[in-house]
Amino acid sequence: MIEQLDDYILDHISPEPDHLKVLNRHVNTRLLYSRMCSGHLQGRLLKMLTAMINPRRVLELGTYAGYSALCIAEGLRRPEARIDTIEVEDELEDFIREHFSTTPLGQRIDLHIGDALEIIPRINRGDWDMVFIDANKRTYVDYIETLLPLLPVDAFILADNTLWDGKIIDTAVNHDAQTLGIAAFNDLVARHPQLETVILPLRDGLTLLRKTRL
Ligand SMILES: C[S@@+](CC[C@H](N)C(=O)[O-])C[C@H]1O[C@@H](n2cnc3c(N)ncnc32)[C@H](O)[C@@H]1O
Fold this sequence. Notes:
The protein is an alpha/beta fold. The protein is 40% helix and 17% strand. It is built from 8 helices and 7 strands, in the order H-H-H-E-H-E-H-E-H-E-H-E-H-E-E. Helix 3 (39-53) runs parallel beside helix 4 (67-75). The relative contact order is 0.12. The chain binds S-adenosylmethionine.
């Protein structure tokens, strides 16, 4: 029943653009861990949220194949708006650049190879008004603590995988470093005086945050 509903949803949302269909096929045939790729539904949501937020500059942590960055690029409405995306695995660089070059959208994305926490202070210009956190689950708390002072009030932060396949509430299996990292992040943002927080139970859980005035 749930699989049928998933199929129904994909049949009744905006179609996946051709360049992303090709990218998805290449993820499945050429990369490991294809499940990490955002995919059709989350990709359309990222585009829609980007169009709603209408950011000037976006930061993405965790590029993987570049699927989500291309979806965010599709949602940019300001002609000058750009995306910084950071990926730690240098062997993904050729794959990512190859697929960014298949569409003009790729020209709006600046790819940085390296550890997110090292790169953020080097490229920060104080103007990221939208952030997509999707890198190392163990360090989600470090990401939010590093980024919050750098972001303008009213910046939006999206954080992926915050329900972690339901493991977050399964006491039999929620003791590994990744689940503990996400649990600490969820606890922090739920009570943070400078954050407005909503969790969407979409896919693996997507948390939407807004930086508020203290
Ligand atoms: C879930 S995947 C990203 C998926 C992609 N955002 C999408 O939605 O299609 C997570 C990525 O984060 C990268 N990553 C892990 N730790 C990182 C770090 N410290 N800095 C930057 N990237 C990191 C991984 O190599 C992996 O490619």
